[in-house]
Amino acid sequence: MSHPELVKVKPDIAANALINRQKYDDMARRASTGPDAFWAAEAKRLDWIKPPTKIKNTSFSGAVSIKWFEDGVLNASANCLDRHLAARGDQVAIIWEGDDPNDQKHVTYRQLHAEVCRMANVLKSLGAKKGDRITIYLPMIVEAAVALLACARIGAVHSVVFGGFSPDSLANRIQDCDSSILITADEGRRGGRKVPLKANADAALKSCPMMKSVLVVRATGGDVPMQAGRDHWYHEAAAQVSADCAPEPMGAEDPLFILYTSGSTGKPKGVLHTTGGYMVWASFTHEYVFDYHPGEIYWCTADVGWVTGHTYIVYGPLANGATTLMFEGIPNYPDSSRFWQVVDKHKVNIFYTAPTAIRALMRDGEAPVKRASRASLRVLGTVGEPINPEAWLWYYRVVGDERCPIVDTWWQTETGGIMITALPGAIDQKPGSATLPLPGVQPVIVDGEGHVLEGPTEGNLCIADSWPGMMRTVFGDHERFVQTYFSTFKGYYFSGDGARRDEDGYYWITGRVDDVINVSGHRMGTAEVESALVAHPKVAEAAVVGFPHDIKGQGIYAYVTLIASEEPTEALRRELVAWVRKEIGPIAAPDAIQWAPGLPKTRSGKIMRRILRKIAANETSNLGDTSTLADPGVVDDLVANRAA
Ligand code: 6R9
């Protein structure tokens, strides 16, 4: 599908941006020709207890060893808090916007520092020490950020488990990293409903004998049972300790956190990030990608349970002394104008969200957006999946009034931070393309045999050399780290994504390589077909998978959700097949279209294609684990209404 639009950097934005095109080119050159000098200079954005003298010491072959700034000593929480106190102690660090539009809080750097010290002291009183793993299972409340930073302060390794995960998933993650302290809350709030976190935790802990202490934050005031000796109310414990806690000196390569993420096989992997390189990457990318200027209000709508929340709600913005907004709610509660009401209320300058949210809001039309002025907005971002050009253009035109550049940021839990993205003042945008790599990132496209392809091409997206923010290992299983990321293409980090590079060197992520469909020997990105379907005015959302086909090898099976005012008809089905054929070509025409009132999505909004592939293949007797779906009921409907 060709989209001729090129959205050029606006001169006034370039003039005021931290990075213009000339500076970008210069940085990219210096980062590739002299990484040691480049990253030694960038490391100065942090406060080091002992500055590093060794910068890069990494190998992508053999046993794979990644070390950055290895003789440096620092503390992540001191970088997010203490060093800001003199200049901006009374500046708001966190604006918290509750699920209920009447609930809000403003927390200054000084207040946040005191609260983090208190929680750090409480954790110490429970016996926590450097290197211990602490699991965090919290809703989007200020204490979630406090908990991350309190762990970092005492050198404990946090493992955040998204509040929407089931007791079983929580238990598995606690067991895998052998954590002995859990920080949770009575309940969470989302979209006017309550999430029974403490009850889930109690259920999980039945199979976690290693768990010694549970710290419970009182969030809703709901009545929850407390187990004597094990469970402690946070507010009671915090009242007993001081608001001073010296930050633990940490080696740059000491672990900062573990975050579990799913791969195509096996149980979730504990992605391990360490302190120095991750913090440099978080600060570097947050400042430059969002063109963050002091005093601006920055809002990332992710949940702190995902890597986006770690890097772009907590560590990146706070390392940079920013004001970061934390939102407890959802995009359509109380109604689908909520995001834009919050933007106006708190005068948000930089807004970062997911394509799935944009597409959902698109369904409700422009009116809810136009009810807010959005005059404060300056930069818009997306993350999490490929954004189809239609959603991109809607975001650009309707939300940003064609005023705000869009940064489509490609990255992964494993990469620690953003890797490929436009920069607001430097890189012309193309709707649907993540555009160009950040300085220090060396993407390569590799064919199935591991040959690096040059020029305009398409293949497997790999990274040729290490960058400071990358994961260091899979917790407790370095061999799995090597196998998963470095064995498919020797000497390269393999992302698991496919990508196309165009004649301008721009990257277009085509989706997970495991989702590529091979139709009669032609490779087809599921994202491409979905993008075409979603471009149809009657289609709200679409998910496409391959299914076994006698003649073509694989056929294309499309699940289509129509906009609210449309009814599924045979005529419309034929119209959509013809539409895709026209948009991409005959090989992309779906073999089957199933009307789907809803798609099976994880709570982070990712479509669970594994299930869609099984339904498409008529293997419905064993759909596997559906417990992490936001709404498992969706699956029954899809099974019952398979397209013949
Ligand atoms: C940050 C995050 C990583 C996977 C990644 C890719 C997809 C993320 C994207 C994107 C296209 C973007 N992805 N950002 N695809 N364009 N801008 O989402 O981490 O949850 O680990 O997911 O998400 O497929 O491999 P994570």
TrEMBL record:
Alphabetical keyword list: Acetylation, ATP-binding, Ligase, Magnesium, Metal-binding, Nucleotide-binding
UniProt cross-references to Pfam families, sorted A to Z: ACAS_N (PF16177), AMP-binding (PF00501), AMP-binding_C (PF13193)
Statement: the UniProt record of this protein carries the keyword Acetylation: yes
Record domain AMP-binding enzyme C-terminal: where: 528-606
Post-translational modifications: Acetylated. Deacetylation by the SIR2-homolog deacetylase activates the enzyme.
Residues recorded with modification N6-acetyllysine: K606
InterPro entries: Ac_CoA_lig, ACAS_N, AMP-bd_C, AMP-bd_C_sf, AMP-binding_CS, AMP-dep_synth/lig_dom, ANL_N_sf
Cofactor(s) it depends on: Mg(2+)
Enzyme class: ligase
Binding-site list for CoA: R190, G191, G192, R193, T308, N332, S520, R581
Family: Belongs to the ATP-dependent AMP-binding enzyme family.
The protein's name in its UniProt record: Acetyl-coenzyme A synthetase
Protein source organism: Acidiphilium iwatense
Lineage, highest ranks first: Bacteria, Pseudomonadati, Pseudomonadota, Alphaproteobacteria, Acetobacterales
Gene designation: acs
